[in-house]
Amino acid sequence: MTQQTAANDTILIFDTTLRDGEQSPGATLNVEEKLEIARQLSRLGVDICEAGFPIASPGDFEAVRRIAEEVGPLTEGRKDGRPMVIAGLARANEEDIRRAYDAVKVAPRHRIHTFLATSDIHLKHKLRMDREECVEQVIRSISFARTLCDDIEFSTEDAGRSDPDFLVQVLGEAIKAGATTLNIPDTVGYTTPDEYGRLIAYLIANTPGAEKAIWSVHCHNDLGLATANTLAGIQAGARQAEVTLNGIGERAGNTALEEVVMALTTRPQNFNLQTNIDTTQIARTSHMVSTYTGMVIQPNKAIVGANAFAHEAGIHQDGMLKNHQTYEIMRPEAVGLNTSKLVLGKHSGRHAFRVHLREMGYDNLDDTEVVAAFKRFKKIADKKKVVTDADIEAIIADEIYQPPETWRLDHIQVSCGDHSIPTASVVMTGPDGAQYQDAALGSGPVDAVYQAINRIIGVANRLTEFSINAVTEGLDAVAEATIRIQPIEEGDFTVNPQTSKAIYRTFSGHGASTDIVVASARAYLSALNKMLAERDKRPHQLQRITNEPTV
Ligand code: KIV
Ligand code: ZN
């Protein structure tokens, strides 16, 4: 296996959406979703995919192993024709490192990413070790990791608050022990761009053997400076940037992939650097990550927010019509928006639909999945004149990338209005193939549907987030509902690699329909099905409350 190297004018993109991103509260993904995101990251052109923290739980190990096995070899659509490097995170000890290696080793290109904190605050209060012990542990762990694999990344956790001269010492030893990439995390998002840039320049200039390693930047966004700090680090000589889609991650998140890549692309005069990213895949990847994690993107988010390319003010619209450069620094097409070439409508056949799906990058769907998506497309086309790519993406996320259904929604009927109590009746097919029906009252139509579903399935949960968005403009738009629920009874958990605390699971669900109540019901059921699928892995008896309507 050859390790990752960087041409001096190329920034390697290390995506940690599936590790640091998944650590953000409520972003839990199941294995199928992780695989689908990893496939899309490969199409996007990510150089290194940090697939998870294998020792955290058997589920995390299995997800990383399957990504290594199934996505690790893929090269389709990739600029450099080489597959992604699949990385697994490990604390600096033998057990973690071996577990990470066992998870990633099947990938043709794999990496162990190990880390140890270097700031006095972390050494004293978290690790309870002195600087000398820290250096010894770094040497021991990296030397051990090198006996397994020749692509080793080492991170000095909380480097942003560490003594630069101690960092020089630790990193020099890390290079001697065999680390090939050195990552300098601003773990708590504390630094400012000039400070962080100076730190990177200082470390590269003073660490013995610095030229043998790739220097990497990893910034958190607590002060809203993650992208600025990352770019400052790049200008100071770093050649790998650690990022997540939509900037998701612990607390205020990580550096957003789309912001760094588009800054480098849009301002070549400032950077004169390139990436291997196919920027036209950015919008789709961002949408997929938002859908699966249930983390809605703020409308004014740079590059991928709904308003990022909207021009509301009359004066702006006038300028745009005369010349788009008046108010636009990059074209929406550059990030994969407004690229639909073929307009699909209710007369489009299955063949045209399949061809269009392939053009959109959905080339791994089997016949049954295409038929299912086509049926949904036809239903939407009956209600809407033109079906756009955004509608199709919503259908695919809703219809295909869902867990195997335990419960299926057959019919919903709702009655509501300002003089009546919202009432819903629901018919569903259960895991045993039998049909169940029930009805309930609610504070609104969506609540009434949820109450009716609860009466049938009877699984206690807490709703932590609910949102509904129109995919396209107009009254006939497809609506996408996103929901997050938490089991009331404690579910299984994974471990936060930095704090070693348990992260309890949140399940997100997604539903799309031209009817907002139906979209909401589908979203709720998809979250419930995910929760049930996890429970089924443990001994559990489904409790049905009753099948008698309360109204
Ligand atoms: O922020 C951080 O320090 C990390 C390391 C584990 C790389 O995520
Ligand atoms: Zn981090």
UniProtKB/TrEMBL annotation:
InterPro entries the UniProt entry points to: 2-IPM_HCS-like, 2-isopropylmalate_synth_dimer, AIPM/Hcit_synth_CS, Aldolase_TIM, LeuA/HCS_post-cat, LeuA_allosteric_dom_sf, LeuA_bact_synth, PYR_CT
Pathway linked to the protein: Amino-acid biosynthesis; L-leucine biosynthesis; L-leucine from 3-methyl-2-oxobutanoate: step 1/4
Start and end residues of each Pyruvate carboxyltransferase domain: 11-283
Segments of this protein annotated with the region Regulatory domain: 408-551
BP-aspect Gene Ontology terms: L-leucine biosynthetic process
EC annotation from Swiss-Prot or TrEMBL: 2.3.3.13
Alphabetically ordered keywords of this record: Acyltransferase, Amino-acid biosynthesis, Branched-chain amino acid biosynthesis, Cytoplasm, Leucine biosynthesis, Manganese, Metal-binding, Transferase
Keyword flag Acyltransferase: yes
GO CC annotation: cytoplasm
MF GO annotations: 2-isopropylmalate synthase activity; acetyl-CoA C-acetyltransferase activity; manganese ion binding
Residues where Mn(2+) binds: 20, 218, 220, 254
Class in the EC hierarchy, top level: transferase
SUPFAM superfamilies associated with the record: 2-isopropylmalate synthase LeuA, allosteric (dimerisation) domain, Aldolase
Pfam families named in the record: HCS_D2, HMGL-like, LeuA_dimer
Cofactor: Mn(2+)
SMART domains: LeuA_dimer (SM00917)
Alphabetical list of PROSITE patterns matching this protein: AIPM_HOMOCIT_SYNTH_1 (PS00815), AIPM_HOMOCIT_SYNTH_2 (PS00816), PYR_CT (PS50991)
Reaction catalysis annotation: 3-methyl-2-oxobutanoate + acetyl-CoA + H2O = (2S)-2-isopropylmalate + CoA + H(+)
Family statement drawn from the similarity comment of this UniProt entry: Belongs to the alpha-IPM synthase/homocitrate synthase family. LeuA type 1 subfamily.
Protein's job: Catalyzes the condensation of the acetyl group of acetyl-CoA with 3-methyl-2-oxobutanoate (2-ketoisovalerate) to form 3-carboxy-3-hydroxy-4-methylpentanoate (2-isopropylmalate).
Subunit structure: Homodimer.
The protein, known as: 2-isopropylmalate synthase
Lineage of producing organism: Bacteria, Bacillati, Chloroflexota, Ardenticatenia, Candidatus Promineifilales
